[in-house]
Design brief:
The chain is α/β, with parallel strands linked by helices. It contains 12 helices and 11 strands. The strands form 3 sheets. A 7-stranded mixed β-sheet has the order 3-6-1-11-5-10-7, sandwiched between helices. A two-stranded antiparallel sheet has the order 2-4. A two-stranded antiparallel ribbon has the order 8-9.
């Protein structure tokens, strides 16, 4: 029953996405869980985070968790299956993937992120669809794929060009898996291996998505991918993240071509509406401020007249005499107050007291100084306590520096 519920939930999640992300292997220090969908443009953040790099985006994704930052993976292996939405792999942890960019853009972002910090990382990208002629002398050395027995194929046929090319890609993947133990060496620097398979889509178009030939092709692909994953896992002793994701570039281009003009029109209409609303609000605010200033000026003038009349009346009383200079000073104060109100400029920018902006390296430097200061303080305290409690025996430096015999010999 639980299996049925899981498959139903997974089917609902994959309907809403047009791709799939599968984690085939991950060490204990990096944990993948949940079923939250993510965008392919965010994969560069996920891949670089698991290798110990600081993410540049703040978009949250609850599917990955770093449990031990001191034992991070030593390599990332990414296998891209072009032109399909799912490979129906029985292994690994599955996540829905929204394809919003081509795989080469993702690769360039990951490799550029690693090259910014260190230029000695191993960065290998291989398109197995280029064939043996292009990959005979690849970055992993000379590849010698084994020949395929036609009798081992039930529904695929080497007589079909699409099937033959797909089988050649699988044989190249197996040849790479056999070559890894002799060419790949684990080191302390993070490495990235990127493999692109593009021959599955023509097979599905030729035989149909639900045909027996497609099912056989998916099984052979998953077997070859498992061989490649196991080879890298053995070389790096499990300290490697092996990820597989699908990418349908044709669907991405079609979606952009249909939605882009509409999105641009909606954005322009929204900008115009926002501008009109802001202009209307600004005009209303200016009118309100102008009326307030006029009302304040009228009230101030009336107040000035009342004060002048009161002062003139009090001057006639012998018990309450007010000099002319005092009257002038009060009128000047009121006039200055009136002029300051009239000098209000609604277009003058308001200076905000914003907090200081800190760079991304501030918390790193802060932690370095903090923990170094703590360790240095306790180390100095331990040294002081040890010296204070030192026994001034004959083998002590305190005895040697204070011995009378030593002074006589000198």
């Amino acid at each position: 029953m639980l299996k049925v519920i899981f498959l139903a939930a997974f089917a609902v999640g994959t309907v809403l996405a047009d791709g799939e992300l599968i984690i085939l292997n991950n060490p204990g220090s990096v944990h993948f869980e949940g079923s939250q969908a993510t965008n392919q443009s965010f994969l560069k953040e996920v891949f670089t985070v698991v290798l110990g790099y600081t993410p540049k985006l703040t978009q949250p994704w609850d599917g990955v968790e770093i449990r031990d930052p001191f034992l991070l993976p030593e390599a990332l292996v990414s296998i891209v299956i072009e032109g399909v939405e799912s490979v129906k792999s029985p292994r690994g942890k599955h996540f829905p993937l929204n394809v919003d960019e081509v795989e080469e853009v993702t690769w360039q972002a990951v490799s550029r992120r690693l090259e910014e910090r260190d230029t000695n990382n191993t960065l290998v990208r291989i398109r197995v669809g280029d064939g043996l002629d292009a990959l005979g002398q690849s970055a992993l050395g000379e590849l010698k794929p084994n020949s395929v027995d036609p009798a081992s194929l039930k529904h695929l046929s080497l007589n079909n060009e699409e099937d033959q090319k797909f089988i050649e890609e699988l044989q190249l993947l197996r040849a790479i898996a056999q070559k890894i133990p002799s060419t790949v060496t684990a080191n302390s620097k993070p490495d990235v291996y990127w493999f692109v398979v593009s021959g599955l889509r023509p097979v599905m178009d030729l035989h149909g998505k639900d045909s027996e030939a497609t099912k056989e092709a998916l099984k052979l692909l998953n077997d070859a991918v498992n061989d490649l994953s196991n080879a890298f896992t053995d070389i790096y002793n499990g300290q490697v993240v092996v990820a597989l994701f699908t990418n349908d570039a044709n669907k991405l281009r079609n979606t952009r071509s249909v939605e882009s003009p509409r999105v641009r029109r909606e954005e322009k209409a929204g900008e115009l509406e926002t501008f009109d609303a802001a202009a209307q609000n600004s005009s209303d605010n200016l009118n309100t401020i102008e009326k307030s200033i006029q009302k304040l000026a009228t009230d101030t003038e009336g107040l000035v007249e009342q004060i002048v009349d009161a002062l003139e009346t009090t001057t006639q009383d012998s018990e309450k005499s007010t000099t002319e200079s005092d009257l002038e000073e009060r009128k000047d104060d009121i006039d200055s107050m009136h002029s300051s109100e009239n000098d209000y400029d609604p277009g003058k920018p308001i200076t905000l007291r914003l907090s200081k902006r800190y760079s991304a390296n501030y918390p790193v430097i802060f932690n370095i100084f903090l923990w170094f200061g703590i360790v240095f303080f306790f180390s100095l305290l331990a040294i002081c306590i040890a010296i204070a409690g030192m026994d001034p025996g004959r083998d002590s430096i305190i005895y040697r520096m204070t011995s009378n015999r030593m002074k006589k010999d000198n």
